[in-house]
Amino acid sequence: MSGVDDGKNGRARDAVTTEPAPGGSVVTASRGTPSADASADEADRTHVATSTTVMRVCILFGLFGVVYAAFVLAPEGQRLDAGSFRMLSSLSGPFGAAASVFRQAMPFVLAAVVLILGVIALLRGRWRDTVSSAALVAAALLVAEGLKFLLPRPGVGDVVGIVGNSYPSGHVAVALALALVTVILSPSDGWHIWLAWGSGTVVIGVAVCSVLSEAHRPSDVIGSALLVGCVVQAVFWRRVAMVDSRPVLARTFVCCAGLGAVLVAAAAALAGSGERAGSLAAGIPGWLLLCAAPAAYAVMLAPTGPLVPALRRGPSARS
Predict the structure, then answer these.
(1) Residue ranges of the alpha helices (H) in 236-275?
(2) Residue 264 is part of which domain span?
(3) What is the value of pTM for the model shown?
(4) Is 20 helix (H, G, I), strand (E, B) or coil?
(5) Which residues, including other chains, have CB under 8 Å from residue 59's CB and lie 6 or more apart?
(6) pLDDT tens-digit profile of 110-146?
(7) Strand pairing partners for 4?
(8) Is residue 318 domain-resident?
(9) What single DSSP character describes residue 187?
(10) What does the angle CA 23 – CA 24 – CA 28 come to, to the nearest 5 degrees?
(11) Kind of pairing between the strands at 26-30 and 16-20
């Protein structure tokens, strides 16, 4: 098969050629046109984007259900959650009041930043991102509060501090959604990573302070992060996320969450054997990692591009 040189633009055109076949017959073959290749690339992008989004939504919502079943419904999970709640809240001491103020004030600070970024985005004609961002915050709040009201919490384990179901945390969900919106409405590409780190740090502070101020159990914080990650993928369907361009971040957060789970399991085993000091040494960093890693990962799910890039296919990959 050969190409014919195009004198106007210097590029090789696809040509129709004839090749002899066994028995003396002639077979006519042709290569795809540029428009057909472009359509195939667009189909690739759509397929990859849809598959990535569906996979993330299923994984995050599945983990949300696993945390609920393990720490809210199961007796041993409730006792572990309550014991960790006591352990972490005991660290607050004189800082408990400050932690409570920080937890309640920071969502309003993030909302003020989002309002400024929203005005800038509207002035630049980015009304679609602005409307979608407002929908994200509203959906995160409604879904979190709705599930907290609907999901039952049987009294089968250790009950401390909080009466009734508190899974997931509404404050953490709203703060996390607002943090995502600061990245989405970033005025320029160069601001994405800085806004993500800044708002992500604030969200981690809200998550930790929610436990230190005895407002929420650790499982509530983890569930909120997983739920908002699911919501942002559903609202910004098939959009490329920050972790797509920085895959090392996803691996880092998964490793941190895995390390946190190992430390929490070790702390539970040490507590059962009466090793209080060892239990505290393993449990405190373990629960902090479990609370922080999902929240930070959810921030990195903020969309920063139109579609997930297509699978790269060279000219020889097509026939």
Answers:
(1) 242-245, 247-272
(2) 77-305
(3) 0.77
(4) strand
(5) none
(6) 999 999 999 999 999 889 889 999 999 999 999 999 9
(7) 13
(8) no
(9) S
(10) 110
(11) antiparallel
